[in-house]
UniProtKB/TrEMBL annotation:
The active site is at residue 107. This is Ribose-5-phosphate isomerase A. Its EC number is 5.3.1.6. Catalyzes the reversible conversion of ribose-5-phosphate to ribulose 5-phosphate. One of its GO terms (molecular function) is ribose-5-phosphate isomerase activity. PANTHER family: RIBOSE-5-PHOSPHATE ISOMERASE 3, CHLOROPLASTIC-RELATED. HAMAP family: Rib_5P_isom_A.
Length: 228
């Protein structure tokens, strides 16, 4: 199976975890696309009833709406039962990096408001340790050169993320993304703690101790792994 087929297989499989009468967080990305597509099908044919979706990006919001899935804003729900999202890298302790699509701020807010989090990935996303995938950080434009200099001084190999026209990528909230390309993250909790204390950083892509279950796409089919 190619990577896209693996993503599709885990996307479809993950919908088995969605129960009727629940509030579901909808992640963002090319793997989640298949999950939302399948959820739309099962909602339309009545297999899954009475759900409300909470999106983590305008992309996922639009896709879900186009399939007729009832949607609410995070402010409008008192809880989220389950969120299904993708990930960019998952280490052997089930810690993750997210934000390859610059959606990690909204994703983190939805994930931390969810009773349960499931990540869906193809096998290429699993790694012994985090860091070979650059760690995204969302920074506010005000004073961003200072924030950048602080990251550089910390030896975190920062780089502003640029679009195809060489312009700085803007997030949903009109912030910039700085990718940290240090290659290897030996102590994710220490790094997360340091980044959490940088005033100009709104959110970083380290999602630690958060995921409960991962669904991994292998050539012989999706495998469900309980993490915590
Ligand atoms: O910002 C994007 C999100 O964190 C995605 O969930 C992550 O990048 C994985 O996306 P994909 O399934 O497209 O690889």
């Amino acid at each position: 199976m190619n990577q896209d087929e693996l993503k599709k297989a885990v996307g479809i499989k993950s919908v088995d975890f969605i129960q009727s009468n629940s509030v579901v967080g909808l992640g963002t990305g090319s793997t989640v696309y298949y999950m939302i597509e399948e959820l739309g099908k099962r909602y339309q044919n009545g297999e899954i009833k009475n759900i409300v979706g909470v999106a983590t990006s305008s992309r996922s919001q639009k896709q879900a709406e186009s399939l007729g899935i009832p949607m609410k804003d995070l402010n409008e729900v008192d809880h989220i039962d389950l969120t299904i999202d993708g990930a960019d890298q998952i280490d052997k302790n089930f810690q993750g990096i997210k934000g390859g699509g610059a959606a990690h701020l909204l994703e983190k807010m939805v994930a931390t408001n969810s009773h349960k989090n499931i990540w869906i990935v193809d096998q290429s996303k699993l790694a012994n340790e985090l860091g070979s995938f650059p760690l995204p950080s969302e920074v506010i434009p005000f004073g961003c050169e200072k924030t950048f200099a602080d990251l550089e001084a910390e030896n975190l190999q920062p780089e502003f993320r640029l679009d195809e026209n060489g312009k700085r990528v803007l997030t949903h909230n009109k912030n910039y993304v700085i990718d940290l390309k240090m290659g290897s993250i030996k102590h994710p909790h220490l790094l997360a703690d340091w980044l959490d204390h940088q005033v100009g950083i709104v959110a970083h892509g380290l999602f630690l101790d958060l995921v409960n279950t991962i669904v991994v796409g292998y050539d012989d089919g999706p495998k469900v792994i309980e993490c915590r």
